[in-house]
Amino acid sequence: MRSGIHPISRPVVFRDRASGFQLLTHSTIDARQTVEWEDGATYPVVDVEISSASHPFYTGTSRVLDTAGRVERFERRYGRTAPIRH
């Protein structure tokens, strides 16, 4: 392998802005903010919008979509162009 071409991997904290969940892992991402971790050391922190702690799939708080109502609203607005097949 050639030296000097690979990014440096270092410990980084990813923090979920919605739930406050934090995860310390290795990453090559550059972060300007820092946070003090549970071990007393200071690590760069990256704020993310969603993680497994706040995603509806993992938390079980998914919403049921009204697809029938959406189809009917679309047909009222734009009409039906194709015949109905049963």
UniProtKB/TrEMBL annotation:
**Cellular compartments per GO CC:** ribosome
**A Pfam family matched by this chain, by name?**
Ribosomal_L31
Which key words are in the record? Ribonucleoprotein, Ribosomal protein
Q: Which SUPFAM superfamilies is this protein grouped with?
A: L28p-like
Q: Which InterPro entries match?
A: Ribosomal_bL28/bL31-like_sf, Ribosomal_bL31, Ribosomal_bL31_B, Ribosomal_bL31_sf
Q: Which family does it belong to?
A: Belongs to the bacterial ribosomal protein bL31 family. Type B subfamily.
Quaternary structure (record): Part of the 50S ribosomal subunit.
Q: Which PANTHER family match?
A: 50S RIBOSOMAL PROTEIN L31, CHLOROPLASTIC (PTHR33280), LARGE RIBOSOMAL SUBUNIT PROTEIN BL31C (PTHR33280:SF1)
Q: What is this protein called?
A: Large ribosomal subunit protein bL31B
| Gene source species | Streptomyces lonegramiae
Organism classification, top ranks? Bacteria, Bacillati, Actinomycetota, Actinomycetes, Kitasatosporales
Q: Gene encoding it?
A: rpmE2
